Amino acid sequence: MTDNDEPAFAPQGIDLERPNAARIYDWFLGGTANWAIDREFGEKALKAVPHGKLNAHVNREFLGRAVTYAVRNGITQFLDLGSGVPTVGNVHQVADKLDHGSRCVYVDNEPVAVAHSRILLEENGDPSRHAVINGDLRDVEHVWQQAFRTGVLDPAKPIGLLMVAVLHFVSPEDGGEAAVARYRELLPPGSLLIMSHGTTDGVPPEHLVQLQSVHEQYKQSSTPISLRTRAEFSALFGDFDLVEPGVVWLPEWRLDEAESEATAEVAHNPPASFMLGGVARKG
Q1: Predicted confidence band at 278 (pLDDT cuts at 50, 70, 90)?
Q2: Which of 62, 73, 110, 170 gives a 20 to 30 Å CA spacing to 222?
Q3: Dihedral sign of CA atoms 60, 241, 100, 122 in order
Q4: CA dist., res. 62 & res. 24, Å (int)
Q5: CA quadruple 195, 196, 198, 200: dihedral positive or negative?
Q6: Alpha helix (H) ranges present in 188-229?
């Protein structure tokens, strides 16, 4: 997509004055649901972190492995918070490969992400098993009620709750910890909490300067970043039981679950992914 080629529509409420994390991430992954301002931001970010696109794919592959693990362990319905713009490897696509009756509700508050999700599900989804809602993950009660109001999710069964690469856009001061704690309370027993998160904790010095540069850059966007330490991220799982190998760099999380081509490229230096991930089960 060139700077003059824009998506065919601009949903009501879209902010085109500032770049947005969901659209930037879409560009990193090779998508087309982004505007020139997002691409310009992405190009600048890649000057600071040349392997930024690779890391976006590494995070996406973690999502795929985590969903694969969940389905293989009996969880076939998912609530994906901060789901972003649809791209290859959506939750329902991964789950459906293993269970044709799997279910998923996507949640985002970025108009492009929601609009494209609806288009994707209209073309390739099943309204009885797939839905998307516009909501802010911090508004826990509303999101929870709306998700079940779709009729897609069964409140009596365990849920795979995903917050992948989204919580570093929700600071503790902005209610991040409180929101996650409430979701933990609401989840049925046996549910899985699947999360990934950016961090500077343990990042090699040669990469730390790169990450800090991008951190500063995101302050100029509509979605500034708040990086957490490993301890702060781990605390978000509360008293849930962490699935082995626990909270680790994304390239270290259960590579046996699915093919991870991009992850293999950074496996020799996991901290260069800048991202921690983990999955935990509610007893």
Answers
A1: very high
A2: 62
A3: negative
A4: 19
A5: positive
A6: 205-218
